[in-house]
Amino acid sequence: MGLDTSRRGFLKGGSVALGAAALPFLKFMPAQAAGDDVVVVVMGQTINSLDLHRTGTNRPSYQVAVNCYDRLVSFGTKTMPDGSLSYDYSTIVPEIAESWTVSDDGKVLTFRIKPEAVFQDGSKVTAQDVKWSFDRAVSVGGFPTTQMAAGGLLRPDQFAAVDEATFTVTLDKPSKLALPDLAVPVPFILNSKIAKQHVTDADPWAMEFVHKNTIGSGAYKVVRWDPGQQLVYERNDLWTGGPLPGAKRVVLREVPSQATRRALIERGDVQMSWNIPNKDASELDGKVEVYSTPIENAIYVVSLNYNFEPFQDPDVRKAVAYAIPYEEIFKTAAYGRGVPMWGGSGIETIDWPQPSPYVFDLDKAREHLEKSAFAGGFDVPFSIDLGQSDWMEPTALLIQEQLAKLGITSTIDKIPGANWRTASLVEKRLPLALETFGGWLNYPCYYFFWAYQEGHLFNSSNYANPEIEQLVAETLDLPVEHPDYAPKVKRMFEIAFEDLPRIPLFQPALSVAMNGATGYEYWFHRELDARKLAKG
Amino acid sequence: MNRRLRAVLARLAQALPVILGVVLVSFLLTRALPGDPAAYFAGDAADAASIEETRVKLGLDRSMPEQFGLYVLQLAQGDLGQSLTTGQPVVEELARRLPASLELTLVALLVSCGIAVPLGVLAATRPGSWVDHACRLLVTAGVSLPTFFTGVALIYVFYYLTGWAPSPLGRLDFIYLEPPSVTGFFLIDAALAGDAETWFAALRQLILPAATLALFTLAPIARMTRAAMLSALSSDYIRTARAAGLTSRKILFGYAFRNALLPVVTTLGMVFSFTLGANVLVEKVFAWPGIGSYAVEALVASDYAAVQGFVLCMALLFVALNLLIDLAYSMIDPRIGFDSK
Amino acid sequence: MNTMTEIPTVAEPQAPPAKSKGALDHVIYVLKDNPVTLLAFAMFAVLMAAAVLGPALVPYDPLATNASEALQPPSAAHWFGTDNLGRDVFSRAIVATRLDLLISVAAVALSFVIGSVLGAAAGYWGGWLDVALSRVLDTIMAFPLFVLAMGIVAAMGNTIENIVYATAIINVPFYARLVRAEVNIRREAGFALAAKLAGNTDVRVLAMHIFPNALPPMMVQVSLNLGWAILNAAGLSFIGLGVRPPTAEWGIMVAEGANFIVSGEWWLAIFPGLCLMFAVFTFNLLGDGLRDMVDPRRRT
Question: Where in the sequence is the signal peptide annotated (chain A) (predicted)?
Answer without folding.
Answer: 1-33
